[in-house]
Amino acid sequence: MVEYALRRALYGVLVIFMVTVFVFLALRAVPGDAVRIQLADAPGVTEEQIAERTAALGLDQPVLTQLFHFLGGAITGDFGASFSDGSSVGGLIADRLPVTGQLGLMALAIGVVLGVVIGMASAVRPNGLLDQSLRLVSVSGLSVPSFWLGLLLVTYLAVYAGWSPPLIYQGPAENLGGNLAQMTLPALALGAAAMASIARMLRSSLLEVLQSDHLRTVRARGAGRGTTLFKHATRNSLLPVFTVLGLQAGGILGGTVILESIFGIPGMGSLTFEAVQMRDYPVVLGCVIVYGAVFVVVNIVVDLMYGVIDPRVRYR
Amino acid sequence: MRNAAPLLAVHDLHVDFDTPAGPVAAVSGVSFEIEPNETVALVGESGSGKSVTALAMMRLLGRGATLRGQITCDGRDITGLTEKQMRSVRGRAMTMIFQDPMSSLDPLYSVGNQLVETVRLHNRMSRARAVERATELLDQVGIADPRGRLRAYPHQLSGGQRQRVMIALALACSPRLLIADEPTTALDVTIEAQILELIRGLQREYRMSLLLVTHDMAVVAEMADRVVVMYAGQVVESGAAEQILRQPQHPYTTALFQCIPTPVTDRSAALTAIPGAVPSPHELPPGCRFHPRCAVAFDRCVTGQVPLFPLDGGARHSRCWLSGDAASGRADRTVVTSASVPGPARRRR
Ligand SMILES: Nc1ncnc2c1ncn2[C@@H]1O[C@H](COP(=O)(O)OP(=O)(O)OP(=O)(O)O)[C@@H](O)[C@H]1O
Ligand SMILES: [Mg+2]
Fold first, then answer.
1. What compartments host this protein (chain A) (predicted)?
2. C-alpha dihedral, A68 to A73 to A76 to A78, nearest 10°
3. Average pLDDT of B68-81?
């Protein structure tokens, strides 16, 4: 199992490497020059100054040279410096990552808790009133993009409740209430899709398991609902739910890019968003690598969970 | 044999299933009784409604099944009980083991976990004590190294061992009636004999009644006190095993006996020995449900429903015009199929 995890991690590194190279080249292909965008607002900039700045950033070199230069640094953990203020990319990410971590975990927790509750409640009485209304909730959760849901939530709360979340970020340590007031809405918007797909998957998986022979046998021995539903049925329904969870974790990560920007949260997402706008190549690449690493780790964890849940799963 | 009150009585049981093609009657008007310590064999070909009857007794039919009639357990009708009330009946009063021991065990929990869970479900005892009891049960069902096997998962056991574990789980409930639905069909012949022997020994030791569902008449001869023969959702013959084996009254029972596999015949081939197949509940023939396949059917069999005739003063029953005292219509019958198989009428002294 350890060997399996290591092998998966190795593949993960390979994937991240390829993604990095792809994003590196794609950034160069996007129209817009980093230096010109940076200096666009400054009045009276001469062509010489632009050339000078370009050389300073190493952007006058051939693209492949730049790539090898970046990769060489990245392998030793040095992602270079931000084009805009020269601060270290590693330092920027270290500041921003905990914020996104909190948001992502909140979104995931909301998705998992609500998804499991809704999924179970629907499976217990299929096609009952609860099931029907929950199905509506979960289908809409699936079909609505998280950024739109986020905007909708803010707008409705502002219009009908006269409340809008704070836009100045506060860490959970300085002001937990203010922090949660700002984070909860985007976490809800981000977690909605996960909630919906977990609920749907758990419902159908539970319904199937509840019909299974071994559950009938458990009932034939006189077991109550606690044992049948929560012990045997739930665990037997979990594998497909974990698969969905792995996919949805990716969706949540991607969603942070826009939602953090909408809600003014200074995390990895807004960092990425601004860096892309400014063509701040080192920051974009640093963020991509970190996002990729998190995604790879999440998927390895999900795969290892299969083995924890099901003793028949063998890793080869 | 019939001295005590029946432990369990099924009276006029009907089970209908909702299907896309409308409701179908899988079981129509089945009645029988099981006395304490008695072994009743429920026999019939595939599709005759044996499992549906057994599951109805446990109230384990899924959604879409409607049940009518009475199922009395210790004098109490259990057909109207709620799921919650059924919990006190399932396990303690009766429990059930199934044909396929692989799919009947939860694959995600160890044998020990499932045993301890069941032991503690029915007995107030500490975990440690329950583990002791679980070990004891595994030992009783003939599993070597019972303590070590507690940690095994179902997929790590052989088919025979799994069925032994299923039996141990049933024993953990100390039921008064064990329903065994074709417990050996998934196993090979040598294991089958061992498992049947085990069930019989434990039945005596635990003073249980046994409802043995099977389509193997050799097993019936080996195990049963009484036999209930089902065909297309009805009881066609019932009575003491000895008498039915010696002198079957219904042509279907006779035909089943001709299916007893001998060591040289392949079992699956033996099961197709009666020409034709059990009619599906959608297309039951009029009159006697067996008449299209019956070697001795005559005009009356095609038209009217055949009642279940009491024979030998009510000790046995047969749903055939040709059986015993009911054979009054014999003189004026016209055979509608050419009889190649000797029917019970000809056999009778
Ligand atoms: N859930 C269900 N829905 C619809 N019809 C069903 C259902 N369960 C059983 N039946 C029908 O009821 C009839 C009796 O089935 P049953 O399983 O009791 O047969 P059986 O005698 O146990 O046969 P076997 O020896 O194959 O186990 C069959 O025709 C079957 O198609
Ligand atoms: Mg069956």
1. Cell membrane
2. -150
3. 94
Which of A220, A236, A311 is opposite residue B153, by nearest beta carbon? A311
Query: Is pLDDT above 60 for B266?
Result: no
What pLDDT does residue A58 have?
83
Question: What mean pLDDT value characterizes chain B?
Answer: 87
CA dihedral over A122, A126, A131, A136, signed as positive or negative? positive
Model confidence over A33-91: pLDDT tens digits? 778 787 776 777 788 888 888 888 888 888 888 889 889 888 888 888 888 888 999 99
Computed on alpha carbons and rounded to an integer, the radius of gyration of chain B in Å comes to 21
* C-alpha A244 to ligand 2 mean position (Å): 36
Confidence band of B160 (pLDDT split at 50, 70, 90): very high
B121 near A CB under 8 A = yes
A238-263 pLDDT, tens digit each: 999 999 999 999 999 999 999 999 99
Q: Is B228 in the pocket of ligand 1 (CB under 6 A)?
A: no
A311 interface with B at CB cutoff 8 Å = yes
C-alpha to C-alpha distance for B127 and B117, rounded to whole angstroms = 9
Q: What is the DSSP string of B250-292?
A: SHHHHHHHTTPPPTTS-HHHHHT-SSS-PPPGGGPPSSSTTGG
Q: CA-to-CA distance for B337 and B343, rounded, in angstroms? A: 12
Ligand 1 neighbourhood includes B17 CB (under 6 angstroms): yes
Q: Show residues of chain B in contact with A209, CB under 8 Å.
A: none
pLDDT tens-digit readout, B101-139: 889 999 999 999 999 999 999 999 999 999 999 999 999
Q: How far apart are CA B153 and CA A314, in angstroms?
A: 13
The ranges of chain A with pLDDT < 50 are none
pLDDT at B243 over 70: yes
CATH number of A98-276: 1.10.3720.10
Domain ranges of chain A: 98-276
User: How far does the centroid of ligand 2 lie from the alpha carbon of residue B33, in Å?
Assistant: 19
Tokens representing B37? 């310590």
Per-residue pLDDT band at B325 (split at 50, 70, 90): low
List the single residue in B with minimal CA-CA distance to A239.
Answer: B108
